[in-house]
Amino acid sequence: MKFQYNTQKEKLIISEYGRNIQDMVHELKKIPEQEKRQAYAEEIIKLMGNLNPINKGNIDAEQRLWNHMFRLADFDLDVIPPKGDKPTIESTQIQPEKPSYNQSRMRFRHYGRYVQQLVDKAAEEDDKEKQIEILNIIGSYMKLAYKTWNPKHYVSDDIILDDLGSLCEGKIELDDAITFDALDSSKTYRRQRSANPPIKSKPRNNRKRKSGRKRR
Fold first, then answer.
1. 35 phi and psi angles, rounded to 5 deg
2. What is the enclosing helix (H) or strand (E) of 21?
């Protein structure tokens, strides 16, 4: 008695549909009558949809099933899909678009990319007083970011002023009116704690509970 194992059979092209569907598609190619072959193909498509119901929720679910049938037939099948165009190897192999990466280089990564954009917006401001207010906020954020990423390193206003001048690229003249204390996190934290004093919890009863069992 001889047994035929799956390893000895033809390799499954799409394992989700099983070997029976693949054999049906191969037998479909042998039907000589056009109308009969088309009718059998549509019935196989319905069966493929029942075996793989995930495709039913997609917009092009039926077209995808026809693409799978042609793939099982090695794209050598004389039937007409509903849309009229027979799938080919080129049409079923969709090449993903290459993602566009940002090629711009940041001089100060610890400040982030948006700081440069904010500085560029501040350079477009015509009102000098408003421009100084914007620079105060930007510099204060830069100082906070510097402390976050370099907690062990001392940061002075001169360092922030030099970095801000490099980001301005000569578009803005920096003067002594710019200060960097608007976003001091330590002051904000102390102010919040003083405004919301901690709630005192009730003392716990440290007395041990007596067990119901009596000692002998």
1. -65, -45
2. helix 18-28
- Pair 132, 178: CB distance under 8 Å: yes
pLDDT, tens digit (0-9, with 9 covering 90-100), for 22-52: 999 999 999 999 999 999 999 999 999 888 7
Neighbours of 174 (CB within 10 A): 14
Note every long-range contact of 76-81, with CB atoms under 8 Å and residues 24 or more positions apart, other chains counting. 76/29, 77/25, 77/28, 77/29, 77/41, 78/29, 78/34, 78/37, 79/28, 79/37, 79/38, 79/41, 80/38
Tell me the two tokens of residue 106.
Answer: 């940041």
Q: Where are the alpha helices (DSSP H) in 124-200?
A: 128-149, 157-168, 185-195
Q: Where are the domains of the chain?
A: 13-92, 114-195
The answer to whether 10 and 51 are in contact (CB under 8 A) is no
Cβ contact 63:81 at 8 Å? yes
pTM of this structure? 0.45
Tokens for 127, please give them.
């009102």
